[in-house]
Amino acid sequence: MNLTRVPLSYVWRNLLTRKLTTGLTAGGMALVVFVFATVLMLEAGLKQTLTATGLPQNVVVIRKGSQTEVQSGVSRSEAAIIESQPNIALDGAGRLLSSRESVVLISLKKQGSGKPANVVVRGAGEQGLALRPQVQLLAGRQFRPGSSEIIVGRAIADGFDGVQLGTSLRFARRDWLVVGIFDAGKTGFNSEIWGDAEQMMQAFRRINYSALVFQLADSNGYEASRQALEADQRLTTEYKRETRFYADQAQTMATFISILGTVLSVIFSIGAVIGAMITMYAAVANRTGEIGTLRALGYRRSSVMAAFLAESLLLALLGGVMGVVLASFMQFFAVSTMNWQTFSELAFSFTLTPAIVVKSLLFALFMGLLGGFLPAVRAARMQIVDALRAA
Amino acid sequence: MMLFLLRMSLKNALRHRLRAALTLAGLAVAILSFGLLSTVVTAWYAGADAASDKRLISRSAISLVFPLPMSYGEKIRSVEGVTGISWANWFGGIYIEPKNFFPQFAVDPPSYLRLYPEFQVDEAERAAFFRDRRGCLVGRKLAQRFGWKVGDTIPLKGTIYPGTWSFVVRGIYEGRDATTDENQFFFHWDYLNEWVLQRYPKRGNATGVFVVGIREGSEAALISERVDNQFRNSLAETLTETEKSFQLSFVAMTDSIVLAIQVVSYVVILIIMAVMANTMAMAARERTAEYATLKALGFGPPVVGWLILLESVLLCALGAGLGILLSFPAVKLVGHALDNLFPVFHIASQTLWLQAGAALVVALVSAAVPAWQSMRIRIVDGLRAIA
Q: What is the pTM of this model?
């Protein structure tokens, strides 16, 4: 008989016999995997939100050196010069696909907690919506140009007081009637309030626009258009593709989440690895007699070692699956927090991707391997006679 | 009797050297990271903790990005109960790279320093700062971070006020208390205003916030209301609140992150609780026969319970003690690495109590089930049991 592999059922039954110990060890690992997976989900959600916000064929123009639309200023004459460059798409009626926008922040109170948060109010030009096809009206209608009407993003309508359909919001000495709620999918626009740019400028007593957004007629000609515009001495503006612009806006936040998550996962996994080690050392110590018997039956050292490693890996996998299942419930929650770079509210959700599931399970297995390796070596190195005598 | 139990449980705890060492290491790491995370949360609130109750902040009611006209200053000064007024304007410049972030304010130096006595400046440096319109006053930590000395020229790239600005360090302030933010950068509001007036005449003579000094902290609500009433229905309505609630409103904007860190800091306690409970369960299971023998010898169930409880408490006390001791150098290290994010980073005494409390809870919870089972087990069954 060739006894090279200890049957898996032996491994499995060992875990079943000590339910409390198995449960506690796997539970500890599950919590670590949970934290690991949630952080990855948060990062993925943030990335998804930001990259989905912009379209690659759209270009955002802001004043040189200002990093956000709120800080920026683009004068009417500059806007006119930029709009006169050739590479701008036209809509069906032959109008320029370009929107001069006025972006400000207002302070609104969050629903429930009543705590203040900065919300982006975007005064858009006539083509503002045409430039962002991802923005869809959920309820009500579009604001009428030239009126004090606004439409609000879904994350704002759900998360803040006083912005429901038909109510009016008071800021800048005017009452703004909410005539529509829009959904922009998983994008940053969901955390914004939109109205007519010229009305906003009057209300906020502004002379300059904040930004200009236009669509390229030829998306590949972006580089050439940018260089031509940058060479123009009359302009003090800078140009970015919309996708790039929004990805840059949350760079700090993405880095913060990723560093915090990595540090936490590493520290926490130390705890879980120690837990696995304790369990596996105890398993080896308690089963000295069994190990001796297995060896006496003809199983090799490597088979015994494999059996104990398999036990540890199985334990870790159990924990990993529990952790991922726990984490998948986080998908029902959304996070709404201030983005430091723009100083404004941004809502995004936990997003579970297949890659994250795989990464989390691998992470769990890695912990199991670390925790199980030394005990498995000890089991493999036992002398048959000593082991049998110890029982 | 208690001494005897203590000795016994200490012997029990150390019987499996490796297991004890691993458990202690796990406990120490967990308590340490719990302490670090709590310190991060404390650091988040540092601005609010350092706020004085004798200062109010007045800003535009729409949001902070809208400025208030300078003419408001004199009107606020005449409000009853106001003892002093100053103003500050966010500059938002970049020093070489965006990651070198630190807060910069254009202020009116004499009145500002009068309202913030916690920023302590040497007499000569203060006078030099007041004299030089291009001068700036920087915090001790900030100066240390970039190796600035008095007399150095600091170039800043403006984001709100475009162009490259240069300032000369005229003074370095030190915080009066441990909680004072030593990571700020102040320069002359006049200098900024002149620049704005030249380029954008309509945007000039304005400031982001007014700092209002008041007589009595207890009058804060009343005075805030008086100030806001002055400007009701004007072009720029004001929102006046205590410095503390002003700072807290910043914390509130990122409170999901604070909440997440808090939750995670409790998760680490849960993880170590699972590890510790496992250690205790295994120990008790292996010693079932011994506990039964103790009972057979005439010791009551409480003795067995105490033995297990004391063992758990001893292990946790050792591990937590180690973790708490390690927290001090760790906080120093992390604080140094993150001093641009958290200007004030030190362990609050409350954190130490929380660490100790968490360790005690872990000890009690881990001992509960094994102690309960060992106390209840019948002598015959216990003697028959094998681990």
A: 0.85
